[in-house]
Amino acid sequence: MLNKDLNQYKMNFTRIYHNQVVPALEGMEGKRKRTQKLAIVISIIIFLLVAIIITFLTNLDFNIGTKENTFSLLFSFVFAGAAALAVYYMFKKNFEQKIKTIIMPIIMPAFGNFAWTKLAVVSTDEIRMSRLINRFNKINIDDNFVGSYKNVSIRISEAKMEYETRNSKGKRDVTTVFDGVLISLEIPKKFHCHTLVKKRSIIGNNGPYDEVKLEDPEFSKQFYVNSNDQVEARYLLTTAFMQRYKNIQKAFNASKIECCFLNNNLLLAVSVSRDLFALGDLNKPLTDTKQFTTFLNEIISILEMIEELKLYQTIGL
């Protein structure tokens, strides 16, 4: 059950949606349909062009009587299909961003002083210093939010991080090391250590510091904790905190959740398999209530983390 503050946010959201968002978007439904048709047409043209170019370059004669020609023809169609989907996705994402620039300033006041921005609010330097994410050399930032809840400053970044390499022949290989949302919370409980809570791996665990032995054996089975200050790490990771932390992954429906305490901030890396904070879907009516309900629940879930972890309390994390 949501507390009084979060219930108020939900009521604010519902009121703003019906009174301001729906009127603002109703006049844009025609533009959505036109953009969708254009995206489909351009994608089909790209598919045909790419398929023809590959066919020409590989000297295919569309004689599928041979195994080689059948394989090459299949490859050309798959490659052309991927190119067409990429173009359609570009149209879809650009349209979504245009809608968000209109809607977000209207709807975010429902959550108090929260604001949406396209600019990264969790810096690359902060991520690297945390040592929470495995090595990466490419980062794509999508939606970002800044604000506070119960005097806890919050920064949220939807991010995808990749590690790209090339072999001696120049072949590109890309590995996704993180896909989800980064949540940075400034907590009132002062500390100086660097403590990491990582998902425990069956193939071995390592970190920059010594492992911290904790009171909760169940927590230690799930998570590998290491810190440069054993005493302060135990001060932060109280029994109550560990129990609340275990609840978050299930509540957020995340495939993995890890965190880092550093510089009086708690940085959470929540891995999810879906596109978060999606509004203005090119394939759905703009006033479709389901996408707005999903958006509301995603924001509320993050604020519930603060309630769950009791981060607004100065003592007793």
Biggest sheet features: 9 strands, antiparallel
Strand order of the largest sheet: 1-2-3-4-9-8-5-7-6
Tell me the strand percentage band: 15-25%
Radius of gyration, CA atoms, in whole angstroms: 24 Å
How many β strands by DSSP?
Answer: 9
The helix tally amounts to: 8
What is the mean predicted local confidence, pLDDT? 87
Uncertain segments? none
Number of domains in the coordinates?
2
Question: Which structural class do the helices and strands define?
Answer: alpha+beta
Helical content class: 40-55%
Helix-strand sequence: HHHEHEEEEEHEHHEEH
The quaternary organization reads as single chain
Question: N- to C-terminal separation?
Answer: 21 Å
| Large-scale geometry | flat
What does it look like?
The chain has 317 residues and is an alpha+beta fold. The chain has 2 domains: 1-111, no CATH class; 113-317, no CATH class. Helix content is 46%, strand content 22%. The protein has 8 helices and 9 strands. The chain has a 9-stranded antiparallel β-sheet. The longest helix has 41 residues, at 67-107. The model has no long low-confidence stretch (mean pLDDT 87).
Write the SSE topology:
Elements: H1 4-26, H2 29-57, H3 67-107, E1 115-117, H4 124-130, E2 138-149, E3 152-166, E4 172-186, E5 195-199, E6 210-211, H5 217-222, E7 223-227, H6 230-236, H7 239-251, E8 256-262, E9 265-271, H8 289-309
Antiparallel strand pairs: 1-2, 2-3, 3-4, 4-9, 5-7, 5-8, 6-7, 8-9
Helix pairs in contact: 1-3, 1-8, 2-3, 7-8
